[in-house]
Amino acid sequence: MKNPDYVIWINNMENKNNILVERKESIIFQLDKNQNVGNGWIGGNAPAYFDDKSDLFSEIGSDYHFYLCFVDPLDKNKMVSIFIPKEYENRVSKNIYPNCSLYVFEHPASKESLYSTYTEFGIVKHYISEGIFVSEEQAFETPFFIKFGGNPFHIQEEEYYYTELEKDRYSFLCQIDEDGYPSGLFHSGTSLPFGFGAVYLYAIVTEDSIKNPIVGYWQYS
Fold first, then answer.
1. Number of CB atoms found within 10 A of residue 8's CB
2. Contact 77/110 with Cβ under 8 angstroms?
3. CA distance linking residue 217 with residue 92, whole number of Å
4. What percentage of the chain carries pLDDT values higher than 70?
5. Cβ atoms < 10 Å from Cβ of 169
6. Which residues contact 14 (CB under 8 A, 6 or more apart)?
7. Which helix (H) or strand (E) holds 212?
8. Are 69 and 176 in contact (CB under 8 A)?
9. Burial of 60 by CB count in 10 Å (0-12 exposed, 13-18 middle, 19+ buried)?
10. How far apart are the C-alpha atoms of 211 and 72, rounded to whole Å?
11. Measured CA distances, 78 to 25, 47, 72 (Å)
12. Backbone φ and ψ of 73, nearest 5°
């Protein structure tokens, strides 16, 4: 059964405005190794949507791994997938808009592919849990893996991370925080993809739509 607050948020414009316009509240998600509730996953194979979309990867090629995908909390028929460079140096050298090397694709919701074309085998697949509707104060006090809406919680409070994004009318959409990794997510000897950091997604956000989600930047400890 879906979390009641989650369902209320999906169907309540006032709550939607609180999250993406007034930004007083947010939805937080955790990771679970066993419980698949259909909200997406980290690790494992990329969504099957990409099986016949090799043209999307003309610039990415084999130097990228699938990182995660999650269902858009605004529309269960849409999914967001993130692909990251295999080499850490290629991530850290381009970690700020407009030259961020992490790729984001918005696409129809999809099951996991049977093919391991883009799989990162250092990550043990975990599922994204149901979302919990919380105030910004509660979100700050609660460990999370994804925080959708509200305001970003930064590791480094430097304006240059988001100055160019705001000039181009991008607004904060969600963050993926490595502080929310559960034990057992990585094989022994595997390094954290973002140096115990966080990835921040931005988009063109209005009261009734979200367009062009991108990774605005990522920060590390």
1. 12
2. no
3. 10
4. 90
5. 12
6. none
7. strand 210-219
8. no
9. middle
10. 12
11. 22, 12, 6
12. -60, -20
pLDDT over 90 at 13, yes or no:
no
Closest among 172, 139, 127, 137 to 27, alpha carbons compared? 139
Is residue 16 predicted with pLDDT exceeding 80? no
Tokens 């169907």 correspond to what residue?
Answer: 11
Question: How many Å apart are CA 83 and CA 119, to the nearest integer?
Answer: 10
Beta strands in 72-209 (DSSP E): 78-85, 103-108, 126-128, 132-135, 146-148, 171-177, 198-205
What average pLDDT score do residues 133-160 get?
Answer: 95
Residue located via tokens 């697949």 = 125
Among 56-60, 137-141, 202-206, which is the least confidently predicted range? 56-60
Q: State yes or no: pLDDT of 200 exceeds 60.
A: yes
